[in-house]
Structure formats: structure tokens, C-alpha cells
Amino acid sequence: MKKSILTLVALGVTASVMGQGYVNFSTRVSGVVVGHVYGSAGELPKSGNTASETPAGAQTYSGTLLAGTGFSATLWAAPGVATENDLVLVPGSITTFRTGASLGGTPQPLVLSVPNVAIHASGTFQVRAWDNNNGAYTSYAQALAANGATGKSDIFQVSNLGDGVLDFPADMVNFRSFNLTATAVPEPSTFVLAGLGAAALVIFRRRK
User: Fold this and answer.
1) Residue 165's pLDDT band (boundaries 50, 70, 90)?
2) I need a surface site. Which of 60, 118, 148, 183 has the fewest CB within 10 A?
3) Do 156 and 204 form a contact (C-beta atoms < 8 A)?
4) What are the DSSP calls for the chain, one per residue?
5) Does this model's pTM top 0.85?
6) Which segment of 14-18, 87-91, 128-132 scores lowest on mean pLDDT?
7) Distances (CA, A) of 132 to 60, 67, 141, 150, 199
8) Predicted confidence band at 56 (pLDDT cuts at 50, 70, 90)?
């Protein structure tokens, strides 16, 4: 028993020296936080919980819940109170989505060490998700550049990150649901089409 206690203390000291706090990358922790990521359904970007999520909100979504390996998510973070531009990708945070009536729309959970956010300190976080096009898009930036379906949560605070040994990883209590949106390729306007038609007619007449 004494040896076990000494081992735990030693592990705790090691974690403290490392200085990086741990977070529970999960959007579904019963009684704490329940949020989802919804698919693209022609809507503008939305965020906020629905009436059935935790905490309950008033948002509504038309898209279905993301499910399976065709969708990916990552966690981004920065120490203290930060802006979105300050956030960096948390290493090892890429994950896919769970399936089923109760788990669909939630990323596969991960316990992550967060760079630059100290043990028991607070940080600013964001979840980013995308349709990975059957694995072709391996990052959020790649999907975004390809005009794929992408989305991101509002930035949120996580406080008192755990040490990964003696303290539980901090839950993402302030996470709220969001949806994916697809960047549509703009269609030519009526005037542009009319202009192209007139130009083609002039060229045709000249050749004739």
C-alpha cells in the first residue's frame, strides 16, 4: 500500500513538472454537457444547444447528426482567455464520430494533453469538424480549401485542467452544439449569362 502511494505521488510530481493540463475531448458527459454536431442542410452557420441538450437551449437544426468515419473533428486551444486566431491544434485530437440514437453527433472521446495550458489553469478551446470525403480530407483546412462541408463551435473556456494522474481531465462544460455548412460555388448571374450569350452571337455572325 505504501509503495502504491509513493508511486502515485511520483507520477503526480512528474505530471506537474511536465506542466501540461489534460482535457476530456467529449461533447457528451451525462449531467455535465451534452452537445452535438449537425450536418449541412443548406443552413447558414449556427451554434447553440437545442432544448434536449445540456444545458438546454433554444436553437434548432435541420441537418442530421454526424455519424461514422466519414466525418472528422479536432480540438484547438490556447492558454487563458484568447481569440480564435490564437488557437492551435491540440496534438492527437483528430477523431471521427460515434453512431447510434444516443451517441450520434458526438466525436469519439479522447483524453488529451493540451500544450501551453498548465495543470489547474484555464484555456480557450474550439471544436472544428468536417466531412472528410471518405478520408480524402485529412484536415479541417483541407476540407475548407476544397469547399467541403465544414463547421466550428463558438470558442469556449475550460478551467482547472487535470494533471492526467491524480486529477480527472477537465470536461468541456461550456461547449455548445453547431452545424456544418457547405461552401457553394456561386452560379453566374443572369446578366453575366446574357453578356456571354451576346458575345457568342457577335463572334458567330463575324465568322459567318
Assistant:
1) confident
2) 60
3) no
4) -HHHHHHHHHHHHHHHHH---EEEE-SEETTTEE--EE--SSPPP-BS--TTSBS-------SPBP-EEEEEEEEEEEESS--GGG-EEPTT--EEE--STTTTTSBPPEEEE-TT--TT--EEEEEEEEE-TTTT--SHHHHHHTT-EEEEPPPEEE-S-B-SSSSPPEE-TT---EE-EE-PPPPPPHHHHHHHHHHHHHHHHHH-
5) no
6) 14-18
7) 24, 12, 11, 9, 41
8) very high
How remote is the C-alpha of 176 from its chain's centroid?
A: 10
> According to the model, what pLDDT value does residue 19 have?
78
Specify the residue for cell string 465544414.
150
What is the per-residue pLDDT for 5? 38
How far is it, in rounded angstroms, from Cα 9 to Cα 2? Answer: 11
